[in-house]
């Protein structure tokens, strides 16, 4: 399988970036997007694009993960817009809601950060990369409310929910990305969603170094392993692996406009 793009990885969390990039080349990848989890470390993400080459593109996103909003100063919309000016920055995020590790006291800060990142996406025209965990109803409510203020492109990354969230996201024009979770034996509901998402809204990712797909479970994940998730997505949808590569890469270029050749 060739021509794949890993739409979500964390190169800053890998022990050996050059080695990971070599695996990516051997796996036939065209590129990857390294995603920020702390706005205070945005320059680190931007710096990682120094590995960008004509045969293996490296882009980045900047933002603060919901798990870190209590530890990070919330940037203003203007700060997000200014930091996103370089062409290597192709998205805002990741941002969103995560109630798995936090209680009710963390919700106001997560909501405020999520809305600020959305406003940054609306202002720049860049997509916001959304992390949502055990927060489907509030994620849907905020997306609908913010969409009423003006459209913005967005992606639900590492989809880990059921059809309710998927249907709401698609209704609002969003995209959905599938990670190694798609290959896990107990994740049948995720596979059910993967079979029904429209062809023009599908993406694949690793979320590396996390969530290594079958048959790489138990090992640190790396962008090249996105090929295993893409192969499983092809199996679930009854199409060829090359077709999935073609579809998902076209969708990356449509959603992340700055990645276009």
Automatic annotation (TrEMBL):
Q: Which CDD domains match?
A: TatD_DNAse
Which key words are in the record?
Hydrolase, Metal-binding
Asked if the record carries the keyword Kinase, the reply is no
List the transmembrane segments: none
Entry's Gene3D superfamilies?
Metal-dependent hydrolases
| Organism annotation | Gluconobacter thailandicus NBRC 3257
Specify one Pfam family: TatD_DNase
Domain of life from the UniProt record: Bacteria
How is this protein named in the record? Sec-independent protein translocase protein TatD
Q: Which family does it belong to?
A: Belongs to the metallo-dependent hydrolases superfamily. TatD-type hydrolase family.
């Amino acid at each position: 399988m060739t021509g794949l793009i890993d739409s979500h990885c964390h190169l800053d969390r890998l022990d050996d970036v050059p080695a990971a990039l070599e695996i990516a080349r051997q796996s036939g990848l065209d590129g990857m997007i390294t995603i920020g989890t702390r706005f205070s470390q945005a320059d680190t993400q931007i710096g990682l694009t120094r590995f960008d080459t004509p045969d293996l593109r490296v882009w980045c996103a900047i933002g603060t993960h919901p798990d870190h909003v209590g530890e990070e100063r919330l940037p203003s919309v203007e700060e997000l817009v200014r930091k996103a000016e370089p062409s290597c920055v192709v998205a805002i995020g990741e941002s969103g809601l995560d109630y798995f590790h936090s209680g009710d006291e963390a919700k106001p800060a997560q909501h405020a950060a999520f809305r600020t990142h959305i406003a940054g996406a609306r202002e720049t025209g860049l997509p916001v990369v959304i992390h949502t965990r055990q927060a489907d109803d509030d994620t849907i409510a905020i997306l609908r409310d913010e969409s009423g203020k003006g459209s913005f492109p967005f992606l639900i990354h590492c989809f880990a929910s059921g059809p309710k969230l998927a249907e709401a996201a698609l209704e609002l024009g969003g995209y959905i990305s599938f990670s190694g979770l798609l290959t896990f034996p107990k994740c049948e509901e995720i596979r059910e969603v993967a079979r029904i998402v429209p062809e023009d809204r599908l993406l694949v990712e690793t979320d590396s170094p996390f969530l290594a797909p079958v048959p790489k479970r138990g090992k640190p994940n790396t962008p090249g392993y996105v090929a295993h998730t893409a192969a499983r997505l092809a199996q679930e949808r009854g199409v060829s692996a090359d077709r999935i590569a073609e579809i998902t890469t076209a969708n990356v270029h449509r959603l992340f406009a700055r990645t276009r050749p």
